[in-house]
């Protein structure tokens, strides 16, 4: 993909660039880069990606590319699991933000995490108790004290790692987490 | 979808899109021994069988739930008293 017009002169090592030369090259660009030629260039760019993909910078930050910058998935967390870091893979890119919806029986939470800030709202109980947190982004509650809670530890090349903390001794059960990772 | 279970069939973890080996490594990080855990890919139908065999979570209790249960146990109030206060649809 390129403009349909070319440079005025092919420059070589040792050539002397004069003010008229430089002005002529700029004038060439300014006069020929018409809306039509720019549209043609954008059209060529538009065909470079699959349908409904987004323009993003590549992982190295050196070139733009087209990709789907969102990924959704699910996983479980054993309520009786010990405190540990847990890796989640398969996003296909390094996320920068995460939305987590966590469910266990009559409790659920909705959390947001960018690796630095961890935000959470939660509700639990048949006569519900509501709350907010700014130190966790996922929590599964057996009650107010027996929980599994997590924050993002790292965003990785193909996923993310959560630090899960078990509080007290929840009974054996599995919380379900639905997530959306954003590039 | 991949799952990791221990020798008894207890579910350690499920991930919908994990690359092979991720769940085993997570289990090792959590203190399991390599010979005691198995990771495998399962279909949605197989997953339904696995999760159905796992312990069911108890109903989460809020402080008000716990207080209500305690008051009912003491005979201070009855379940009928609670039901009478609930909003009718």
Q: How do the strands and helices of this protein lay out in sequence?
A:
The complex is a heterodimer of chains A (183) and B (89).
Chain A: H1 19-32, H2 35-46, E1 54-57, E2 64-67, E3 70-78, E4 84-89, E5 97-104, E6 107-113, E7 118-124, E8 129-133, E9 138-141, E10 147-156, E11 159-167, E12 174-182
Antiparallel strand pairs in A: 1-2, 3-12, 4-11, 5-6, 5-12, 6-7, 7-8, 9-10, 10-11
Chain B: E1 2-6, E2 11-15, H1 22-29, E3 37-41, H2 44-52, H3 63-74, H4 79-85
Antiparallel strand pairs in B: 1-2, 1-3
Structure, explained:
The complex is a heterodimer of chains A (183) and B (89). With 183 residues, chain A is mainly β. In chain A, 14% of the residues lie in helices and 45% in strands. Chain A is built from two helices and twelve strands. In chain A, strand 6 (107-113) and strand 7 form a beta hairpin. With 89 residues, chain B is α+β, with helices and mostly antiparallel strands. The mean pLDDT of chain B is 91.
State the major sheet of chain A: 6 strands, antiparallel
Low-pLDDT stretches of chain B are: none
Structural class of chain A: mainly beta
Oligomeric state as shown: heterodimer
Average pLDDT for all residues of chain A: 91
Strand content of chain B: 15-25%
The number of helical runs of chain B is 4
Strand % of chain A is 35-45%
Name its key features.
A: 183 residues; mainly beta; six-stranded antiparallel sheet; 45% strand; B: 89 residues; alpha+beta; 4 helices; 40% helix; 17% strand
Summarize the structure.
By secondary structure, chain A is mainly beta. Chain A has helices at residues 19-32, 35-46; strands at residues 54-57, 64-67, 70-78, 84-89, 97-104, 107-113, 118-124, 129-133, 138-141, 147-156, 159-167, 174-182.
């Amino acid at each position: 993909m390129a403009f349909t017009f070319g440079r005025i002169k092919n420059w070589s090592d040792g050539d002397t660039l004069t003010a008229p030369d430089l002005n002529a090259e700029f004038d060439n660009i300014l006069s020929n880069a018409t809306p039509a030629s720019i549209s043609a260039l954008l059209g060529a760019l538009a065909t470079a990606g699959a349908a409904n993909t987004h323009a993003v910078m590549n992982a190295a930050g050196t070139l733009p590319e087209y990709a789907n910058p969102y990924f959704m998935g699910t996983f479980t967390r054993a309520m009786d699991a010990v405190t540990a870091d847990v890796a989640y893979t398969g996003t296909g890119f390094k996320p920068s933000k995460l939305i987590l919806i966590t469910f266990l029986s009559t409790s659920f939470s909705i959390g947001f995490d960018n690796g630095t800030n961890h935000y959470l709202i939660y509700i639990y109980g048949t006569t519900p108790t509501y709350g907010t947190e700014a130190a966790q982004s996922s929590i599964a509650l057996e009650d107010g004290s027996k929980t599994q809670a997590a924050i993002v530890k790292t965003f990785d090349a193909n996923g993310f790692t959560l630090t899960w903390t078990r509080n007290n001794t929840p009974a054996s059960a599995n919380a379900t987490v639905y997530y959306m990772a954003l590039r | 979808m991949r799952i990791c279970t221990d020798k008894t069939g207890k579910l350690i973890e499920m991930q919908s899109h994990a690359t092979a080996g991720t769940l085993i490594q997570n289990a090792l990080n959590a203190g399991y021994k390599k010979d005691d855990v198995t990771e495998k890919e399962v279909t949605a139908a197989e997953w339904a069988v696995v999760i159905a065999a796992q312990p069911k979570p108890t109903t989460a209790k809020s402080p008000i739930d716990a207080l209500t249960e305690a008051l009912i146990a003491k005979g201070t109030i009855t379940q009928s008293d609670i039901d009478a206060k609930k909003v009718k649809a």
